[in-house]
Specification:
Elements (H helix, E strand, L loop, with lengths): L1 H10 L8 E5 L12 H7 L4 E3 L2 E5 L14 E7 L2 E2 L4 E2 L2 E5 L16 E6 L2 E5 L14 E3 L3
Amino acid sequence: MLSQITKAARQLPASSKDANFIVVSANRTWPLSGDPQCVVGDLIGSTLQIGSVVTLPHARRGKFWTPEWKHIAAVVLLDYLRGLTEFKYPCTVLLNPVAEVQASAEWFPRARVCVLEGSHFRWVRGEPGDAHTLPSGTILVEDG
């Protein structure tokens, strides 16, 4: 699935006045929107935890921080969950903090959205699942 996301990024125009989005609806047995670890690690980066402090060091940042991804405003993880009496469309959005054209959490009023505010990551409308690697409050740090 990560290779398909990368392929989609290459297919979108590299310079645009519009916000480019990649929307993923994974064909799997559990919702990607509730367990986005692999996508978060690939795009945002791999965090480190020391005690209760979680950081994202410069050297461990993901694809969003590379020049090839500056034209992608966000990656949207959208699932369809069907129950016996109801269905839902859970959605998790990862905003690219260094995109040329920025997207806003307000554009996704029913989704949980990962945003970078200053040097701290925050999840708008709640964090995904129980086990994920980018909790609210994660600090973006420079190495050295």
